[in-house]
Amino acid sequence: MKRVSVIAGFLACLMVVSATAAQEPTPTTATARQPSPDEVNRVAAQLYCPVCENEPLDVCQTSACVQWKAQIGQFLAEGKSDEEIKQIFVQRFGLRVLGEPPAQGVSLILWIGPIVAVLLGGFYAVRTIRRLSQRGAVAPAPTGPEAASTGDEYRDRVERDLKQQL
After folding, report:
1. Which of 3, 27, 144, 164 has the most CB atoms around its CB within 10 Å?
2. Which residue range is the domain that position 111 belongs to?
3. What pLDDT score was predicted for residue 29?
4. Per-residue confidence (pLDDT) for residue 137, from 0 to 100
5. CATH number of the domain enclosing 93
6. Whether residue 89 sits in one domain with residue 68
7. Considering the entire predicted model, what is its pTM?
8. Domains in the chain: how many in total?
9. Cα–Cα distance between 137 and 9 in angstroms, integer?
10. b/e per residue, 138-158, with b = 16+ CB within 10 A?
11. In this structure, is residue 64 part of a structural domain?
12. CA 25-27-32 angle, 5° bins
């Protein structure tokens, strides 16, 4: 009798284990991997909060931003790339959610404008410096009554410069 009860217990355990092992794994446990907060923040750092002004999505603590970060995590778990996620947010909220505007169309001015401004500023600075250095080197020597010296070299130089500008 003991043997029968041991064999029956063994068979019962075997049936429970085999039934559990035969089940397919649920998608949330085996196939879908939950992204880490660092992965979510990597994408969120490239986006700005559509509600808060000039607030990156990764540091914004409003309830809307928390929901959007959860959505980013869900998109990452589905296997979407960073660019696909950014495109989804652009479709919903417009280009203002992007941390960096795309280098195309009207936004191209934002990329080229500062470079052009620096080049023009440098050209103007070099031209001004050359003009000022040439003006000082070509100063004519005073003649006639202007040549009269007061004896003070500094005062004479100031007088000459004032007369030159007039």
Report:
1. 164
2. 102-133
3. 45
4. 59
5. 1.10.8.640
6. yes
7. 0.46
8. 2
9. 111
10. eeeeeeeeeeeeeeeeeebee
11. yes
12. 125
3-state secondary structure (DSSP) of residue 47: strand
Provide the token pair at 111.
């990329």
pLDDT band at 99 (very low <50, low <70, confident <90, very high): confident
Q: Are both 39 and 96 inside the same structural domain?
A: yes
Convert 38-75 to b/e letters by CB count within 10 Å (16 or more is b): ebbbebbebbbbbeeeeebbbebeeeebeebbeebbeb
Look up residue 123 and give its amino acid.
Answer: F
Helices (H), the chain: 2-22, 37-44, 63-77, 82-93, 108-137, 153-165
| 147 within domain boundaries | no
For residue 3, tell me if it sits in a domain.
no
Distance separating alpha carbons of residues 47 and 83, to the nearest angstrom: 11
How far apart, in whole angstroms, are the C-alpha atoms of residue 105 and residue 6?
79
Structure tokens at 103: 């280098």
